[in-house]
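Entry 14. Two folds queued back to back today. First construct below, sequence then structure tokens.
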Amino acid sequence: MSGAAMKYEQDGEEAREIAKVIPYFPFKNIPRFYDIGGFLSKPDVFQKIVDIFASRYADIGIDAVAGLDARGFVLGPPIALALKKPFIMMRKKGKMPNTIESPPYETEYGKRSGICVQRDSINAGDRVLIIDDLVATGGTLSAAIELVRMLGGVVVECACVVELKFFIPSRMKMYAKMGMADVPIWGLISEDLLTIEAALPEGYIDDGEEH
């Protein structure tokens, strides 16, 4: 990584400021579901996140930015525009024509069928940055890495706003077994900073769908 890339470290000064607008909710039967809607409602904070990611990846030779369905579609396009690179959608099956599908994968919610990407979106040798809002078990990112490799591309890094560090040992074990241990994962903010509990209205109901 270049000096500009290394400027922004996990849980650094900028991360501490951004963490102040990311509350957690009890949602999907998870006690702490981190809500990116907190920073989406603050244009200056959202812009800062885009600027940080664009700065980190400006000088390392990115050919395309891929985003994961669905919150990666919120974060990925402005980052791709800032880098002046194409944006690639990685979606659930049946949402796009002319696709290939990854193998099934596991997440913190359970087993999932594969995700898809269009066959002509990645060329052999392309250096691809994968974007999502949060990495926990790393299962969804593993499917994205698999898709890039199936088309002959190279994953430069997987980048997320939030990384749940307590999943790192199990994630690294899984990635080693899958031959992905060489793929870097970077998160701007860890759960150590995300301590703001959302103020729940009276009668709050956890109505989150499983996926």
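Second construct, same run, same settings:
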Amino acid sequence: MINNLNTDGQNSNILNKNAKYDRQLRLWGNHGQTKLENSRICLINASTAGTEALKSMVLPGVGYFSIIDDNTITKEDVSKNFFLPFESVGQNRAKVASENLCELNQDVIGDYLVENIDRILENKPEYLKSFNLVIATNLKENTYKHLAEYLWNENIPLISIRSFGLIGFLRIITQEHHVVEAHPDNQLPILRLDQPFEELKTFCNSVDLNDMSEAEYSHIPYLIILYKYLELWKSQNDGKIPKNYKEKEAFKHFIKSGNVFFLFF
């Protein structure tokens, strides 16, 4: 196992994580990043397509990966796979690919197993149960069918990749999968202005916007301004709040025009 986690300076690594993963955190938030960091990925065969697929998971910080491959690196392998250097010819493909992939991200734990997938499926298929996703590349048809059937029954997604130079295909085999992510970090706050509680109404009504200087007015919480103009709007619209786009836009203009009134009159 190749473990990149360094206990020295661990606190500083935590502090730098937000900066390191800033772009993807904007996309899937802390919840999505946590899911990724807790994931375990298995790659079967460290082919060119397989290592490139795994690279795209190592860079954003997948928690753990393991490569299953009993093949020895050939000159053909090193001529087309960036993660297999020329001096690695004759070594195990899973071992070398794991070591070089781990160099991309010190937060990721990499592992490898020098074994044939057919023997694993025959003798110890439960080894695959510990993974959240399995990526298989360039498998024989019988092996592929056996693997797909086992993972389907265990409800583990399988991504099958086969490439021939510039031509290839990717197939996803998984049961029905739902993704619901409402980005809770970006939820709008509930201001309770449509049904204000008594304490809120008392506090807002105690503020007199007409008896303020410009400096005092600039420090008024916007919640109070919204409340007062919403009450005025309701008094002019049969007690109803703005509901559709047209009414909400009119309400915005109503507040802006009111700000000018309070500041200068």
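Quick look at the second one. DSSP finds eleven helices and seven strands in the chain. The two ends are 74 Å apart (CA to CA).
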